[in-house]
Input
Amino acid sequence: MRDIRLSTVLRAVFPRHRRSALQPAAPAPSAPPAPRRWIACHTPRCGHLETPHSPAGPGMWECPGCGRVQAEA
Ligand SMILES: [Zn+2]
Output
């Protein structure tokens, strides 16, 4: 009259095995961060402060504070 499934027994005996099988794989290495360039932004919003601009095309850089795109100084 025993109606115990093998999977039930294995789960009870080897709980660690099951848990480790459910763990997500290690995250893939992320892409290198985009190059930043510290450029002074002369808009009233940024107040002439240097901010780490992100590339916005060849020779152009975008301000993270106000979104202004300016040529490389
Ligand atoms: Zn700005």
Residues 41, 43, 45-46, 51, 63, 65-66, 68 surround zinc ion (CB under 6 Å). The chain has a mean pLDDT of 83. Helices lie at 6-13, 15-22.
